[in-house]
Amino acid sequence: MKLSKLEKTIFYILLTAFSLYFLLPFVWMILTALKSEAEAYTFPPKFFPSVWHFDNFKAAWNSQPFGTYLANSLIVAVLTTIGQIVSCSMVAYGFARFNFKGKKVLFTLLLCTMMLPWDVTAIPLYMEFKIFGWINTLKPLIVPAFFGSAYYIFLLHQSLTSIPRDFEEAAKIDGANEFQVFTRIFLPIMRPVLNLIGVLNIITVWNDYLGPLVFLNDRSKYTLALGLAAFKGVHTQQIVPTMAITVVMVIPPLIAFGFAQKYIIEGMSGAIKE
Amino acid sequence: MKELTKKKKINFTPWIFISPWIIGFLIFTAMPLLFSLIMSFFNWPVIGQKVFVGFQNYITMFTKDAQFYKSLFITLKFALIFVPFNLIIALILAVMISIPVRGVYAYRVIFYLPTVVSGVAVSIIWGWILNGQYGVFNYILSFIGISGPDWLNNPSWAIVAIVIAGAWGVGTMMLIFYTAIKAISKDLYEAAYIDGASNVRSFFSITLPLITPTLLFNLVTSIITSLQEITLVLLLTNGGPMKSTYFYGLYVFNNAFVKNRLGYACANAWFMFLIILLLTALVFKSSDVWVYNAAGKNKKRSKTS
């Protein structure tokens, strides 16, 4: 597309205008978290705090067991990531590198589960986990990850199908068994996509609100997302500490995204393309 | 005998690899799905006697529960505003970030950034921005002479507030459009340019027809997600004011986990499941008319998407 000088100027103005919509809320979040309570509640709003209250974070953090919530979030994030990487790599390999009866039906079924509404399964899952004795433990959030997730399996599957058959044949001639072909040849090939899945999973799990809301009811089991929502619920008239915790909540996914943005923007779109 | 075991071994290898998903599918998807259908025929409290009631839950839902229709209507209204709005913004942004000018990568990242933020944080941030008394949004509007409403406490504006906050996460859809646009051959644009076509003309004659399969994919997924929207309404308005944002997802959630009517909530959930299936089928069916089809190549794609 060729742009004239005038078009280019208009284009940049438009880009910047849109950027404001996407960026200013972040800026406003940080500025609010650093104000005094009295200064936050003024109209017209003051953009910059007259005194920068960096101790807001400490005060807000210590007002509730956020350390425990954080620990729970980290446990869930680490364990689910391990679970997803192990299970999804196996399943994707099974679907992408073998021919077997019923493969097409099963793979279609797998893709269909991505379209399944959340609440159709959430209610019976609640009953199911109640029978297992898992309610109010972190297990409902962790264990399913060890059985794979349709979207991640799909992403890996796309990265495996284009590889020529010669790869496993050569390895088998060299005396490798099926399992060794998987671990020594295909796991390294899947590595970039596995990294992407790791990051996507950490972000998803860290942000998850509905899962913890349904399956947890004791504060000692809360994740950070649920803890923050509960904090917001009882401190409706105290925006400053709420915003301070929100900043803490938002920063880790942003950092994770920062590390993996090339992977996410190019890699994810590469896979969607199929 | 020896040959038989050998044959068996060959057949079983892929099954071993996909077994985690099969087991997980049975325990965490298939069984709950079936269980949910069964529960919908029961009066099923969390604790206490479960009573088989036949179609009673469905009958109550359709004939006695006014809130069912209200929630359904509000949710459809939301989808009707949100889906086209989101699709258009996503498409505009995708076109913009695919024009190779200096610094465009930075904009790509900026537009995508909010999608990594938790719904909890989104609702807190936007709840504060849209606050009727101290909100910075109304302050900015006042510069251009608009006196903004009390977004979250005004029954006619609350749904718009949800749309504004929800559209913050448009980046995922934008990225999918962007990929499709990037895949279009540059030669087509060159040829159009030589023939004297304007950029706008190129967009409508080349870009738009070629990305219709992606448009279809985004349309279907965004209909599905907006019909299920719950996190934002739960945290931003909690269904209020005056139940003006009491979306269907929230209605089902409250029936199940607040009012303890699990069986009834399952009937609600199954009804929405059927609507979603129907809409998806309808969109795919109509796609023959408007989805660009390059020698059947794209057809296969829209099926798998």
From TrEMBL, chain A:
Transmembrane parts of this sequence: 12-34, 69-93, 105-127, 133-155, 193-216, 239-260
Domain ABC transmembrane type-1: 70-260
Keywords on record: Cell membrane, Membrane, Transmembrane, Transmembrane helix, Transport
CC terms in the record's Gene Ontology section: plasma membrane
Signal peptide stretch: none
Coiled-coil zones: none
Main location: membrane
Claim: Ribonucleoprotein is one of the keywords in the record: no
Short name of one Pfam family: BPD_transp_1
Record's bilayer topology term: Multi-pass membrane protein
Xref: PANTHER family: ABC TRANSPORTER PERMEASE PROTEIN MG189-RELATED, ABC TRANSPORTER PERMEASE PROTEIN MG189-RELATED-RELATED
Family note: Belongs to the binding-protein-dependent transport system permease family.
Name this protein carries in UniProt: L-arabinose transport system permease protein AraQ
Native source species: Caproiciproducens galactitolivorans
TrEMBL record, chain B:
Topology term for the membrane: Multi-pass membrane protein
Domain (ABC transmembrane type-1): residue spans on this chain: 72-283
InterPro entries named in the record: ABC_transporter_permease, MetI-like, MetI-like_sf
Transmembrane region(s): 12-35, 78-97, 109-129, 157-181, 202-224, 230-250, 262-284
Coiled-coil residue windows: none
A single Gene Ontology CC term: plasma membrane
GO biological process: transmembrane transport
Alphabetized Gene3D superfamilies for the sequence: MetI-like (1.10.3720.10)
Protein origin, superkingdom: Bacteria
Keywords: Cell membrane, Membrane, Transmembrane, Transmembrane helix, Transport
Pfam families in the cross-refs: BPD_transp_1 (PF00528)
CDD domains named in the record: TM_PBP2
Subcellular localization: Cell membrane
Alphabetized PANTHER family for the sequence: ABC TRANSPORTER PERMEASE PROTEIN, ABC TRANSPORTER PERMEASE PROTEIN YESP-RELATED
Family in the record: Belongs to the binding-protein-dependent transport system permease family.
Name this polypeptide is given: Lactose transport system permease protein LacF
